[in-house]
Amino acid sequence: MGLLALGTALDWPDAKKNAQQVREWGIKQLLEIWNKAKGKERDAMLWGDEVEYLVVTYTQDDPKVRLSLRQAEILTALAASPELAEGGGGVPDLQHDHGADAAATNADEPAAKRRCVASNGPGASNGASAAGSAKPTLPVFHPEFGRFMLEATPGKPWGIDFRELLGVEPDMKLRRRIAKDHMRPDEYPITLTTFPRIGCPGDFTAPHYPPSGPRLRSQFVPDEIANPHIRFPTLAANIRWRRGRKVQVNVPVFHDRNTPIPWKDPTVNRDLHLWPEDEDVRTGGAAPDDFIHMDAMAFGMGSCCLQITFQAKNITEGRKMYDQLSPLGPIMLALTAATPIYKGFLAATDVRWNQISRAVDDRTPEELGEKPLKNDRWRIPKSRYASNSTYISTDPRLRPEYMDPNLVVDEDIKAQLLEGGMDDLLATHFAHLFIRDPIVIFQEDLEELDLNKTDHFENLQSTNWQHMRFKPPPADNSIGWRVEFRPMEIQVTDFENAAFSVFMVLVTRAILSFDLNFYIPITRVDENMERAHAVDAVLKERFYFRRNPFPARRARGLNGEGDTSSRPGSRPGSRAPSRAPSRPATPVGAVEDEYTEMTVDEIINGCHDGFPGLIPIVESYLDSVNVDVQTRCELDTYLRLISQRASGKLATAARWIRDLVDAHPSYKHDSVIGEDIQKDLIGAVIAVGERELSGQGFAGLDVPDLNRLLGSFRGGCGGGDGINQ
């Protein structure tokens, strides 16, 4: 498969023997990149989005909905499209031979998450469709871990022009339409985070395969559910092999009024004896009461999400973006909550994050603290898929008290980076990432170190799946320093996905324009990530957040204290805020006084005599720049959607799904999601997607409570053609 045809993957015992060599070569490649690119400058902030789809088979006559395992055939059809290729799109993994340098690619980023903001630079962005001046560049498609998944990105990065922001939604619709056009009539690309009944007894894939297999060794899913390229099953097998047992993805079940107490997962076979790991559910505590038990990487990496990558003008700006967006991760996770069902049961959580974290957790019992350290070097508090553990900016407002006091760092690697000229903060960041072992190693990559490649560095960098990722330029230095924002859940419609994408772009621009400061202790960000998992966290939880994000010289006016032109919770001032000094003063005072607990509504919309709100800050930013009336009106539509999600006027996708289940005539209020409930849910999602693509609006569409999800929004200025029109 082109990019994925990489060579001979090592099983874990051999990979373990070569792990240190990969680390050492990875550090040498990192220092080579550092020395080439540390002074690199870019003129414009480019960005890109990544949308992931489940592909399902659905017909009116068949009572079952299934996951289609035809990823390879669909991608082949897309790659063979001359129109797509001529328009700048296609499937790079199949159309180009990238050679051994592709070892940088990881399992949930199989081709070019680096290419989504990568190509070409300022002036080459994908805004033609918004401006109407030329044909847009067609989208690019990529494989994913699950054989039932697709990823789509814009063919070129988005640029800085505000009108380009209006091209995002049409481009997302175009991607969905093109994907659908290359599928069978009964196949649909849908943007649900997870397939509700994946792993349930019976046939849930097309074609059907029985559960288990030598790679995943799962009770619930077959090996064939994963992309068959050797990278993916090797990743799953080596994670299991390294940790010494299967992954344990246990999600608390939602206790409805007829759910038994205690609840025992009825799908778990405690008498299975296919693999040595099957003993874990009998004696190892792998399947505790009141938890939905899952045992394979597919239950995590088979989830869909929405990710945004920003290119900074230089490394200093990139490091600042990384730090300032980090505290926003849990807030956006709660705001986009869309994952209330696992393996056919309602869960007592609303988001995917911890489930993916557990699905790729390769830590040994010693690293987990279950056994005394003997063979391993450290106790590691987090999975390799987790929230951030570091701040990296050179901003003088970054206080030592914000850092994790228990951060695990490879001191030898840190010393090498410091000796190579890297500063302490960034050296600490990478030395923390490099405490992990490389999971997938190809024999051919061990023959010779090539400093004109980044394969060994990316082997470790890209398998640290944190909620933010700081991405150096590639070896050829062709693109800039990038920051990836990873926590958001995928939404049901392209309108919603565009709204959240555009919102994050505007927040990022406001951060840079107003020199905003969202620092809180990194351990509080960890706590916030946990709180974001709660059912209806967007309404019921409180999150640690900085009280005053403004630089000292402007804090008084924009925080509503002593400035009658600015009212907290509304637009913070009618005049454009002036830029803060480039080197703000080092803060003083107790760190605990800098932040407090707030609701998502208060963080997004503001609160009286308190935090002004992200949307009012964005509105103030838009007031300060030259945006035409039509563009501003369209952008306000996106901001209103997000504002109403935060306030509870509109439901999250998770709440909408829960309400649909609760009102279904077949639901017995016992937490069980049957085939007919799943079919009606996915049928509703397909109907919404088809109507959205038609451009006819949602009026008259027979989908329960759609007005609670979308209100009267269609995506156009003023919300015309909405449900209630």
UniProtKB/TrEMBL annotation:
Alphabetized SUPFAM superfamilies for the sequence: Glutamine synthetase/guanido kinase
GO molecular function list: ATP binding; glutamate-cysteine ligase activity
Keyword Electron transport: no
Cellular component, GO, one term: glutamate-cysteine ligase complex
EC number: 6.3.2.2
Region named Disordered: 86-111, 554-590
Catalytic activity: L-cysteine + L-glutamate + ATP = gamma-L-glutamyl-L-cysteine + ADP + phosphate + H(+)
Keywords linked to the UniProt accession: ATP-binding, Glutathione biosynthesis, Ligase, Nucleotide-binding
InterPro entries, per the entry: GCS, Gln_synth/guanido_kin_cat_dom
Residue spans of biased composition, Low complexity class: 565-587
Gene Ontology terms describing biological process: glutathione biosynthetic process
Entry annotated with the keyword Methyltransferase: no
Catalytic class of the enzyme: ligase
Xref: Gene3D superfamilies: 1.10.8.960, 3.30.590.50
Domain of life, source organism: Eukaryota
Record's protein name: Glutamate--cysteine ligase
Lineage: Eukaryota, Fungi, Dikarya, Ascomycota, Pezizomycotina
